[in-house]
């Protein structure tokens, strides 16, 4: 009997514990349901607010995007206007440089000519009847003429015939290089190269080639003529020396021969002088 009662008490105790545990689980489930309902309510409110925010933001976003597009278009328009206005200012900007000429400012002069080339192309394509096209065409023509004259002037100024002695020295040196004779200064060579490159390119001119050919060929002729005169001079000098050595001396007159004979015998002019009396 005692064992049965103990067993019964144990069972009752376990049932009581299980009952408490069940009640606790039930309470926790109820709390979880409450929390879930609260979370669902919060999420529903949040979703509603998101929809309201989206309804508010989307129009603003569209307007902002439209404004951004307008701003980009305005910036592009201003850039294009600046580009076009720049071509209208080319004539006034480059005219003082062209008036001064390319002497001592070849780089600046060529830069101005490049601007004129672009301006001519722009007005020819976009507004061929504009007075600006006539202006830049005139400046371009005058500038090209000035460049051709400067090319010819610099080349003429620094082109000098080679001295005959230097030619002889170079001939004796055969294939060896000689840097002691400078045909053209380095700065002049640089300027002439830049001018010729522009004239043969954007300038579309070939007259400078003829000028170069004429000046350099004339200089070569002068060098050859100088060498020829030098050779002739040396030949005449050698002939005179040879003649002087090979030709015998001509005999002197009778008086000179008599004087020489008296000189040899010890008699001079003084031997014929009167002797003073004692």
UniProtKB/TrEMBL annotation:
UniProt KW keywords: Coiled coil
Matches recorded under InterPro entries: Cullin_repeat-like_dom_sf (IPR016159), Exo70 (IPR004140)
Region feature Disordered, mapped onto this chain: 232-278
Gene Ontology CC annotation, any one: exocyst
Chain intervals with Basic and acidic residues compositional bias: 257-266
GO biological process terms on file: exocytosis
Coiled coil region boundaries: 1-35
Pfam family, one: Exo70_N
Regions of compositional bias (Polar residues) in chain numbering: 233-246
Protein name in the entry: Exocyst complex component 7
The organism of origin for this protein: Ciona savignyi
